[in-house]
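step=encode ok
step=design start
structure_in=
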């Protein structure tokens, strides 16, 4: 049996409690349009790869990393790997195809209020990461699109019926543990065959709880503004109403 790694993603006070400005849903709204950006928690520059040391240790246990100042956050330390560290084709494949390609994408969603259904188009076509993949690794990232249809009328106690590019699935619902009485921040545990981790969620009190990047939380009262996992970070970029 594979061992389970229990990962807790930690946030600073500022990250947890910052609230972006979004308009509250007007009365008689029929459609809610929303856009999320998902970004990999790996950062690349001309010298190499930066990431949380826990993420590097999980993905590349055989590669020794060094600790350096985080180029994206002042007064914090992260792990660093030069590009020469990815001499093993399997390690290179895991970074380029497994992490960079699959965790840099957008979620263009529409929630139909009367029908209680959501459609989300996932687009994998990040210009910056495509340019870096070509320049650094000589890899080509094709544009990829996936459609998700979520039917909340088919919601059960533990799952929600979805259709991913024509394939019917029943996505699990996660129980949220709140950090504060306002129910603005919280976490939930996600588990698959080889990993168990605690993801952190920041909500916005003005937003409908159906505003979400295809993550289903059993007791969420507001829309998701930010979601942080070990591998990637989702940020809500826009919300409009019809």
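sequence_out=
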């Amino acid at each position: 049996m594979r061992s389970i790694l229990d990962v807790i993603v930690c946030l600073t006070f500022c990250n947890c409690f910052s609230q972006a400005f979004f308009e509250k849903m007007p009365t008689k709204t029929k459609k809610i349009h929303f856009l999320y950006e998902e970004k990999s928690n790996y950062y690349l520059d001309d010298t190499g790869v930066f990431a949380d040391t826990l993420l590097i240790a999980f993905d590349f246990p055989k590669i020794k990393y060094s600790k350096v100042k985080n180029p994206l956050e002042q007064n914090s330390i992260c792990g660093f790997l030069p590009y020469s560290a990815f001499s093993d084709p399997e390690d290179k494949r895991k970074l380029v195809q497994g992490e960079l390609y699959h965790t840099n994408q957008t979620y263009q969603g529409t929630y139909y209020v009367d029908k209680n259904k959501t459609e989300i188009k996932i687009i994998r076509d990040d210009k910056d990461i495509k340019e870096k993949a070509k320049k650094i690794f000589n890899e080509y990232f094709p544009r990829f699109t996936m459609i998700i249809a979520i039917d909340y009328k088919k919601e059960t106690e533990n799952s929600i019926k979805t259709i991913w590019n024509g394939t019917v699935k029943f996505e699990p619902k996660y129980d949220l543990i709140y950090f504060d009485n306002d129910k603005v921040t919280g976490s939930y545990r996600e588990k698959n065959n080889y990993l168990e981790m605690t993801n952190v969620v920041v909500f916005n009190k003005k937003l409908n709880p159906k505003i979400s990047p295809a993550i289903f939380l059993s007791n969420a009262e507001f829309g998701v503004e930010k979601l942080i996992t070990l591998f990637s970070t989702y940020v809500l970029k826009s919300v409009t109403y019809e």
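step=design ok
step=annotate ok -> The chain has four helices and 16 strands.
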